[in-house]
Amino acid sequence: MPKVLVSDSIDRVGIDILSQVAQVDVKTGLPPEELVKIIPEYDALMIRSGTRVTQEIVEAGTQLKIIGRAGVGVDNVDVAAATRQGIVVVNSPQGNTIAAAEHAVAMMLALSRHIPEANTSVKSGKWERKKFIGVEVYKKTLGIVGLGKIGSHVAAAAKAMGMKLLAYDPFISQERAEQLGCRLVDLDLLLRESDYITLHMPKTKETYHLIDAEALSQMKPSARIVNCARGGIVDEVALMEALKADQIAGAAIDVYENEPLEDNSPLRELGQKIILTPHLGASTEEAQVNVAIDVAEQIRDVLLGLPARSAVNIPGLYPDALEQLKPYLQLAETLGNLVSQLAGGRVDFLDVRLQGDLATRDSKPVVVAALKGLLSQALRERVNYVNATIEAKERGIRVIETRDASVCDYTGSLHLAANGSLGSHSVTGALLGDREIRVTNIDEFPINVPPTRYMLFTLHRDMPGIIGKIGSLLGSFNVNIASMQVGRKIVRGEAVMVLSLDDPLPDGLLSEIMKVPGIRDAYTVTL
Q1: What is the pLDDT of residue 68?
Q2: E strands within 210-367?
Q3: Cβ distance 268 to 240 under 8 Å?
Q4: What is the mean pLDDT of residues 264-268?
Q5: Terminal alpha carbon distance of the chain
Q6: Nearest-10 Cα torsion for 378, 381, 386, 390
Q7: Catalytic residue among 56, 117, 241, 259
Q8: Catalytic residue among 69, 279, 300, 415
Q9: CA–CA dist 433, 286 (Å, integer)
Q10: Beta strands in 86-161 (DSSP E)
């Protein structure tokens, strides 16, 4: 039975889900050296923000198939190291959406009305109404930096409160922004015109210190900024200086470059100009349950051999795309495996041609699936959707991708061509209905066969008696034929025969087939 290590506190419901398929060990608060020592025993690791999964831990996890982060950010996981090892890294991009959005709105309102300080004042026996005169958010302009799921929910709440909305997000269309009631603008304009700014994006090389001294200098003196996204997006030193100089009116911060926030952090000394909370964005009862269920289900699925729906290190394989592309991924993997064996395994290049409706879809997952199939004969279980691209690059396999939406024999089809030790070969496949895979072309010869476990391909001269002789020869070796189809371009020219077999070919049979008059070449394939 697989073993799962849970190294941070998660809701019990997540452990119950994992226990359906694995032995689950809950060991929280482990020092790094202890985690390195025990991680080789485990097939999966489930964490929250407390565990830092370093390269050393990843490389020690020789059996790890998946690392699950019960939350959105994966800053505490060396995703690059996990990818090199073929380990899936998943998160829960939607589990705490509402919690994070509500906390951002709460921080904005608390900052506007001095709620934390007023609460402390009253509890200390004072009554200082004039000291805590606030400002209204009604008719103010809110600049939302990052209009994803959390930012979108903030937009809906702010719109309901009568705020005007600006948004900056280089990955969102104008149409989508307008649907949310936002005017899409560049970052500089947003900084200049907003009364409030709220941040909702991951921390990357591009977003690190996005709000720096220069950005803060563009803001209104009356503006306030809220960061419930990731520590490091705001330059904390620059923010402190801006608040001290009254360059901006206030800030509400939930996340920090170093967590926990240092005892001597200057941010603690800024009084009512700033509100500080200890990374509470996802800290609701509902969010904890949601992320635990989401990530536990993904770990369970991966251990059962199924794909994860929110893998952060599988190119283009997002939850919405996965459901739509899943049948095509199986098609691509099957065709990649098939063309690899026909070409001889040692492949120099792979030509991936997306045709018909498939040409209009996201190609990255399809290419990854094709590479996984291409390399599966050589690498077996070592290759997966995570490391297929890296493995292909290290072997010098060039990938050429083209699209041709004009092909309309099928709703969507995929053509793969590869050059290997057995020469250049190509295969084309499509889906019959929504799920059933069909191989529709071999080396430009039209056929229509479902892929099966054992297959025999022959290139032969189209002449009487060939099919009968091959059938008799297989029968003499007690190999049962499940189906047979011939593809040809002209009568009595060259043809391809595809036989689906119930049994693998015994040793020596392929060489006997090659002796049959008219047979030019023959290949066995095991899928």
Answers
A1: 96
A2: 224-227, 250-253, 274-276, 349-356
A3: no
A4: 93
A5: 26
A6: -20
A7: 259
A8: 279
A9: 40
A10: 88-90, 141-145
Token pair of 282 as six digits:
């996802």
Q: What is the mean pLDDT of residues 193-220?
A: 94
457 closest CA partner among 327, 344, 330, 332: 344
Quick one: pLDDT at residue 112? 97
Catalytic residue list contains 268? no
Q: Which of 148-157, 166-175, 276-285, 333-342 has the lowest average pLDDT?
A: 166-175
Question: For the chain, what is the largest distance between any 2 Cα atoms, rounded to a whole number of angstroms?
Answer: 105
Q: Which of 153, 200, 230, 425 is catalytic?
A: 230
Other beta carbons less than 10 A from residue 333's beta carbon: 23
Is 403 catalytic? The answer is no
Three-state DSSP at 329 gives: helix
Residues 6+ apart with CB under 8 A from 508: none
- Exposed, middle or buried, 30 (CB in 10 Å: 0-12/13-18/19+)? middle
Q: What are the tens digits of pLDDT across the range 337-362?
A: 999 998 886 788 899 999 888 888 77
- Tokens for 308, please give them: 């994860």
Can 59 be counted among the known catalytic residues? Answer: no
Can you read off the two tokens belonging to residue 172?
A: 């969102």
